[in-house]
Task: inverse folding
């Protein structure tokens, strides 16, 4: 027994992506069938078998020994991110679908430049389409200040890869502090603009999460995928001692995906959460066009008595995407799923909370693009305290939302119904 304990104590997690590219998810673990396995768990999401099921689906470990903080305002999230950057000792890795040359982008640039000046290695990765309006001069200034930057799939250079975008929002500092969620780097979150010029309804509602602990190491591994793809210099990632991930809750599964890697696994993991839920599943999503398979999973949970609620945008920066979501409302409502539209501002969050124990936060929208074309990153967190925060945020959002009721929805004008149907047909290319 002693030699075995010795081997376990020195077991290492290698810095490799999980699931691996080219891995085929077994048929019984795909999203349509895994729901049955999750439903059979005696204790639902709190059953020990639930973690085992998640590991079977994704092929990745769940990391314990983390501290988690959730942010529901851009002002709070950006303050925490800038504090982490200011305190960086050796390395900053920043990945954002959109990085704007505005007050927010300039504030982060200033902090990143100060870090680079004191010897911290700083790498910035932005998506070429998402950051299309950011001028070349901004990136050149970044390089002059000692910050290495790359654009993911530059326009016109790699025409075949143009549909495939980097939608992740990741910040990793010293491989021990990490952030992810729905927030890009921009003024729409209200942190850096003069308040006299901004109305409350102009500040986007989003969710971001900070992790301190071994899960941050895994997110550095995820960053390396996009960075390498964009031609960045080598990241020297050391293995993680397994005992560091064996600490107490919160326990975290990092769900990361890109085209032909991890997308089926991410969908199956979310389906397993819905299948294992016994009391409630509350989902917030900004661009909702999930396809009929997801509608069936949600509807099945509602029909077996789970309180399934969707918080979706009443206002959107992409109106066509909102109408695509409308094309699914009738089927959802007929199955007992409750639908709310948030009207206080533009809703950009992507979260899930189930049974006061499971939380998911990240960049993935419930649409075709996230599950077919985009690189995404989400954290699946097992912890009652974090789930309590997510639940409270959802309840607060409901005070600023209107519930869509079936009788009124049936009476919406003909042109609205026609537009919803057409937008739903266009959903795969939105």
Result:
């Amino acid at each position: 027994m002693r030699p075995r304990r010795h081997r376990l104590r020195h077991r290492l997690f290698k810095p490799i992506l999980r699931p691996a590219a080219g891995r085929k998810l077994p048929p019984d673990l795909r999203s349509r069938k895994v729901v049955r396995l999750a439903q059979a768990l005696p204790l639902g999401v709190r059953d020990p078998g639930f973690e085992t099921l998640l590991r079977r689906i994704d092929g990745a470990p769940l990391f314990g020994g983390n501290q988690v903080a959730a942010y529901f305002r851009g002002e709070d999230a950006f303050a925490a991110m800038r504090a982490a950057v200011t305190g960086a000792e050796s390395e900053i890795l920043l990945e954002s679908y959109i990085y704007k040359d505005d007050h927010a982008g300039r504030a982060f640039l200033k902090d990143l430049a100060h870090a680079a000046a004191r010897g911290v290695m700083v790498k910035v990765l932005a998506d070429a389409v998402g950051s299309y309006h950011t001028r070349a001069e901004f990136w050149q200034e970044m390089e002059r200040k000692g910050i290495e930057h790359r654009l993911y799939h530059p326009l016109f250079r790699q025409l075949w890869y143009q549909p495939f975008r980097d939608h992740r929002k990741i910040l990793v500092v010293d491989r021990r502090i990490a952030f992810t969620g729905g927030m890009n780097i921009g003024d729409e979150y209200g942190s850096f603009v003069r308040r006299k010029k901004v109305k409350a309804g102009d500040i986007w509602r989003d969710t971001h999460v900070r992790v301190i602990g071994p899960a941050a190491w895994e997110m550095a591994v995820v960053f390396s995928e996009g960075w390498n793809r964009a031609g960045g210099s080598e990241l020297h990632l050391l293995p993680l001692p397994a005992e560091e991930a064996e600490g107490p809750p919160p326990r975290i599964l990092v769900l990361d995906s890109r085209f032909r890697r991890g997308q089926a696994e991410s969908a199956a993991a979310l389906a397993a959460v819905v299948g294992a839920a016994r009391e409630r599943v509350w989902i917030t999503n900004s661009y909702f066009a999930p396809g009929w398979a997801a509608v069936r999973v949600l509807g099945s949970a509602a029909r077996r008595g789970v309180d399934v609620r969707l918080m979706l945008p009443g206002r959107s920066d992409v109106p066509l995407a909102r109408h695509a979501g409308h094309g699914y409302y009738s089927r959802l409502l007929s199955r007992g799923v409750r639908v709310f539209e948030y009207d206080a501002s533009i809703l950009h969050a992507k979260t899930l909370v189930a049974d006061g124990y499971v939380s998911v936060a990240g960049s993935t929208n419930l649409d075709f693009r996230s599950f077919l074309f985009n690189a995404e990153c989400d954290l699946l967190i097992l912890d009652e305290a974090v789930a309590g925060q997510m639940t409270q945020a959802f309840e607060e959002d409901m005070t600023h939302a209107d519930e869509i009721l079936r009788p009124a929805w049936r009476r919406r004008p003909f042109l609205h119904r026609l537009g919803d149907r057409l937008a739903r047909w266009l959903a795969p290319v939105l």
Remarks:
- Confidence is low (pLDDT under 50) at residues 1-8.
- The first helix runs from residue 2 to 9.
- The domain at 18-64+250-429 is CATH 3.30.870.10 (Endonuclease; Chain A).
- The chain has 15 helices and 17 strands.
